[in-house]
Specification:
The protein is mainly α. Helices cover 78% and strands 0% of the residues. One of its GO terms (molecular function) is transmembrane transporter activity. This is Major facilitator superfamily domain general substrate transporter. Residues 57-478 form the Major facilitator superfamily (MFS) profile domain.
C-alpha cells in the first residue's frame, strides 16, 4: 500500500539530483547509491544529524538569537514613536508608520532568500544579511529625519527577516522528523516573543535616556548575535556524494557548500517558490496564518496609545511592562503547542496522517477568540488593566500555538521544501502584520474598541474554519484517490 501521508511534489525537488545529472552519469549513479543507503547515511560524520549535541545546541542557540531579533528589532521602536514624533516635529500617527514598510519587506525578503539559500547554502545567507541588518540599524540610529530613518528601517526588515526563513531548513537538516515539532516549537517561539519583548526593552532604555540610545543598544545586540553566528554557525546542507569536510572559511562565502550549479539551481527555486505559493494546502493554511497574526500585531502597534490615555494614564515604564503580558502569552503558547503536538501524535501514532497536525489549531483559536473579546471589552468599558493583560495573554497563546501547528504540518507534508515552505508562511504572516497598521486605528476610532474586537473574533473563527476545514477534505480526497490507484495496480 502506498503511504499517502506525505505528498510527493509534481516537480522534481532534488536539486542535488538535478545538479548531479548535469555533471555526469557516473556521478549520478554514485549519488543515488549514497542517498539510498540508509545505513551509511546514519553513520556519516559529515551529516549534520550526526553532529555532537553541543555543536548542534550552540548553532541552534545562535539561530534563536537571530530569530528573536527578526521581529523584535523590527518593532523595537513601538514604544518610542511619541518621542520620535516630538524630535522630528511630526504627528504621532505619522511617526508610527516608520515600521510598516519594514514589516512588509520582511515577507518579500524571505521569498528572495529561498533560491540563494538552496544555491549557496544556509550559512552565508544567514550571516551576511545579519551583518547588513546590523549596519541598517546603525544607520537608523544616526538618522536625523523621519524619511532617512524609515528608509533604514525598511532595509532592516528586508534583510533582517532571513532567520525566520532559514530556521526550518536548518531544523530539517540537523534533526530527525520525530524531533521537528519540538525544535520548531522552541525556534518559532523566539521570533514570536520578539515583537513583545523588543518594544518593552526599548521603552525601558528610552525612559532613562532617549530613543537614539535605545537604538544604539539594539545595534550592539545585533553585533553580539552576529559574532555568535560567526563563531557557532556551520553549514548544515548535506548533499549526497560529499566525502570531505567543508572548509570553514569557504563556507562563510558559499563556496563549496552545496556543490550545485548555481544558475540552474537559482532558476529552479525561483520557479518552485511560485508554484508552492499556490499549492492548495499552503495557500489555505497561509491565509489562516495571515488572519491569525494580523490581530495580535494590531494590538502590539496600537496598545501604547490606549495605555497612555484615560482612564489608564500609564507612564513609559508601565506601558513597556505591559508588553510582558504578550511575552507570557507567547511562552504559554509554546507550552500549549508542545503539548497538543505530542498528544495528537500519540493518539494517532498507529494511523498517522500529516493533516492531523492541523487539529492543533482548534483549541488555540478558541483561546484567541476569548482573548480578543476580553481585551476589547475591557478597554471599551474602561475596566482594570488586568483584563487587558489577560486578554493579550489569551490572544498570544492562540497565535503561537496555531502557527506552530500549521508550520509542523507544512514541514511534515513538504519536508524537502523546508526553505520554500518557511518563506511562504513567513510572507503570509508579515503581510498580515503590515496591513493592520493602516486600517485598525481608523477602524477603532470610527466604531469603538468593543465592536472592532468583537468583529475581529468573528472574522478569526470564520477564516480559520473556512481555510483549515477544506485542507482536511482535500487531503481525504487525495488519500482516497491514491488508495484506489494502488488497488488498481495491485489487481494488474
Amino acid at each position: 500500500m502506498v503511504n499517502p501521508s506525505t505528498e510527493k511534489p509534481s516537480l522534481v525537488y532534488s536539486t542535488r539530483d538535478m545538479a548531479v545529472r548535469e555533471w555526469s552519469s557516473s556521478e549520478t549513479q554514485e549519488s543515488k547509491q549514497c542517498d539510498s543507503n540508509s545505513e551509511v547515511e546514519t553513520k556519516d560524520p559529515l551529516n549534520p544529524r550526526n553532529w555532537s549535541s553541543s555543536r548542534k545546541t550552540m548553532l541552534f542557540v545562535s539561530l534563536m538569537t537571530s530569530s528573536l531579533l527578526a521581529d523584535g528589532a523590527m518593532v523595537w521602536g513601538g514604544t518610542l514613536v511619541t518621542e520620535q514624533a516630538m524630535d522630528w516635529n511630526i504627528s504621532i500617527a505619522h511617526s508610527a508608520t516608520s515600521m510598516n514598510y519594514g514589516i512588509l519587506l520582511q515577507g518579500f525578503g524571505g521569498i528572495f532568500a529561498v533560491p540563494l539559500i538552496e544555491a549557496y547554502g544556509r550559512l552565508p545567507i544567514w550571516l551576511w544579511p545579519q551583518v547588513i541588518t546590523m549596519l541598517m540599524v546603525l544607520g537608523a540610529t544616526l538618522s536625523n529625519d523621519w524619511s532617512t530613518f524609515t528608509a533604514f528601517r525598511s532595509l532592516q526588515g528586508l534583510f533582517g527577516t532571513v532567520p525566520q526563513v532559514i530556521g526550518l531548513p536548518i531544523i530539517h537538516d540537523m534533526y530527525t522528523s520525530a524531533e521537528w515539532p519540538r525544535m520548531i516549537n522552541i525556534w518559532g517561539t523566539t521570533f514570536l516573543v520578539g515583537p513583545f519583548l523588543g518594544p518593552a526593552i526599548a521603552g525601558y532604555i528610552s525612559a532613562g535616556s532617549d530613543w537614539r540610545t535605545s537604538f544604539g543598544v539594539l545595534t550592539a545586540i545585533y553585533g553580539v548575535s552576529t559574532v555568535m553566528v560567526v563563531l557557532f554557525g556551520y553549514e548544515t546542507y548535506h548533499g549526497p556524494g560529499r566525502m570531505t569536510k567543508q572548509s570553514r572559511l569557504a563556507s562563510y562565502f558559499g563556496i563549496g557548500n552545496t556543490l550545485l550549479p548555481k544558475g540552474s539551481t537559482l532558476r529552479y527555486w525561483c520557479r518552485t517558490v511560485v508554484v508552492y505559493v499556490f499549492k492548495f494546502p499552503l495557500l489555505m493554511t497561509g491565509i489562516a496564518i495571515l488572519v491569525t497574526f494580523t490581530w495580535p500585531i494590531g494590538i502590539t502597534t496600537t496598545i501604547d496609545n490606549f495605555l497612555h490615555s484615560p482612564p489608564y494614564l500609564f507612564d513609559t515604564i508601565e506601558a513597556s511592562s505591559m508588553r510582558f503580558a504578550g511575552v507570557i502569552g507567547a511562552l504559554c503558547g509554546w507550552a500549549v503547542g508542545h503539548f497538543f503536538n505530542s498528544w495528537i501524535f500519540k493518539c494517532h501514532n498507529s494511523t498517522w496522517r500529516t493533516e492531523l497536525r492541523l487539529h492543533g489549531v482548534w483549541i488555540p483559536i478558541g483561546s484567541m477568540t476569548i482573548g480578543l473579546l476580553t481585551y476589547g471589552l475591557t478597554m471599551h468599558f474602561g475596566k482594570h488593566w488586568v483584563g487587558i493583560a489577560i486578554g493579550w495573554i489569551l490572544v498570544n497563546i492562540g497565535m503561537v500555538a496555531t502557527i506552530v501547528a500549521i508550520s509542523s504540518y507544512a514541514l511534515e507534508k513538504y519536508p524537502e521544501q523546508a526553505t520554500c515552505v518557511s518563506a511562504i508562511l513567513n510572507m503570509w504572516r508579515t503581510c498580515g502584520g503590515f496591513a493592520v497598521g493602516y486600517f485598525q486605528p481608523a477602524w477603532i476610532q470610527r466604531n469603538g474598541l468593543g465592536l472592532v474586537f468583537g468583529i475581529q473574533a468573528i472574522v478569526l473563527c470564520l477564516a480559520v474554519a473556512l481555510t483549515i476545514t477544506p485542507v482536511f477534505l482535500w487531503e481525504r480526497k487525495r488519500r482516497l484517490r491514491v488508495e484506489v490507484d494502488a488497488d488498481a495496480e495491485a489487481e494488474c
